[in-house]
Predict the 3D structure of the following.
Amino acid sequence: MADEVILLDFWPSPFGVRARIALREKGVKFEYREENLRDKSPLLLQMNPVHKKIPVLIHNGKPVCESMNVVQYIDEVWSDKNPLLPSDPYQRAQARFWVDFIDTKVYEPADKIWSTKGEVQETAKKEYIEALKILEAELGDKPYFGGDNFGFVDIAMTGYYMWFEASEKCGNFRIEPECPTLMASARRCLQRDSVVNSVPDPEKIVEFAFKIRKIYCV
Amino acid sequence: MNQEEQVQVLGLWGSPFSKRVEMVLKLKGIPYEYIEEDVYVQKSPRLLKLNPIHKKVPVLVHQGKSIAESLVIVEYIEDTWTTSYPMLPHDPYERSMARFWAKYADDKVMLTLWKACWGPESEREKMVEEAYDGLKYLEEELGDKQFFGGETIGLVDIAADFIAYWFGIAQEASGVMIMTAERFPKLQRWSQNFVRNNIIKEVLPPKEKLMALFKAQFGNNASNEA
């Protein structure tokens, strides 16, 4: 019996894109379903009743929620190619640690950059750059956080890399002078086939960011 | 056992995060050296060196390398010591469910319970409602199982340790009653199973000491524990 893989997603989501990338890294055929987050489908509400959020991966009728949990699930099920997590327990722990760092220390200020202004936005920009600098120090001179291979932490960060331009324009600042080697890794990630096929046109993300900024930022 | 193989845990006596690591080590029968870090008084140079990013406990040191963040540590222990007391199921779907509920208990529920007891008065009612919602989902997920992990303690039980033990004491100390036997009979039964477990009960901090700590800190934020 062939696998049925459905992804409930929202095109500009930095979290949804992680699931798309992971599926494409593994060569998994899936059905992409766009969700209107202002009018969530009955399927989404049924499959993720606790959070009612995307992405939700539905594999043979069973839902998996929370983006990095989805990525880990994809890695464990389709384990025959392109491992996303290292096999060494210490390296795996480091990958999980840095994903936790990203989803706390990068997420919170990133969110505030497009949705706030004035002092709050300035503080968010500072915290965002601080977090990116810590990540850049961790990256060192490796091409990817995964070393020579694109992996778990890189997938987590790509959601933010695709939003770099929108963040810069909303916040009126530039990331590259602050974090040149992270930016080089970002470009490398954004050129991967799985990422090119998963990430929307950056112009469209900028447009979307300004649209929602008008709503949230009175 | 040589120096490299020895496991060390930097922890805080009353911290549910710190205790998660000790619980899993003990369940798996892994010997370790415990080092108390009084993070509220002074963070030691050792802690700052081993966890420079967050400067928090718990930290696990093994084979000369340090790992931080309690649930990351638990998964490291699970990946490293694979033959005794598995904390996660084998099946990838069941594993993803365990990770989902562990994160839910850790991220959402624990925080709302804490805020419901000690958050600002103005937000109290909203936090209490959110706490009820969070516990309701956990009650449903637990169902008639002895533990979230089934017949044995698993990742979700460990992640929910605050709910099983610390929260009952916090309720007494703050006077805010949320998790009652009437409203959440399954969670109540589960928490008793958990704290009475022979291994878990050896690890739990003394109730009187926690009660005194909570009463003294009433209204303060705990920001030194990971």
